[in-house]
Amino acid sequence: MRKTFQLTQEGRHRDRVLEAVKHEIRKYLKRERRRDLPEGVDFLDFDCRCGATKDSAEVVHLSALMASLDAVAKEGATEAYVEILAKPGVRQARPPGTSAKEDHPAQSADAPDHIAPAPEDPAP
Predict the structure, then answer these.
(1) Average pLDDT of 58-83?
(2) How far is the C-alpha of 25 from the C-alpha of 27, rounded, in Å?
(3) How far apart are CA 17 and CA 10, in angstroms?
(4) Can you tell me the distance from the alpha carbon of 67 to that of 108, in angstroms, rounded to the nearest whole number?
(5) Taking the model in full, what pTM does it have?
(6) Which residues share a beta bridge with 24?
(7) Which neighbouring-strand residues pair with 87?
(8) Is the N end or the C end of the chain the one with fewer CB atoms within 10 Å?
């Protein structure tokens, strides 16, 4: 998908237009992910670019695409260019000796794995 979205429409609030653009992008991603994968491909990866114009569009990660779109709208641009290209992805095996805990970026070393529930106050 390579498309320039208008962020202003007569008679519609700017925020609603932006939400409609995001909805169309999410719908496109869902449709692409439903497709059958070719032989030897584990998942679809996406190369994304976003900016006020095609020339000023910067490469962004898929998870940061909506935030980038918000930033373009906040700058006051009247249109936004979004480019999403699907590419085949193959999962890489972890190197021997590393565990999922060590490799996972969201796992903090000082955070407990399980938080015990708070004890209930006894009834008087």
Answers:
(1) 96
(2) 5
(3) 10
(4) 24
(5) 0.73
(6) none
(7) 45
(8) C
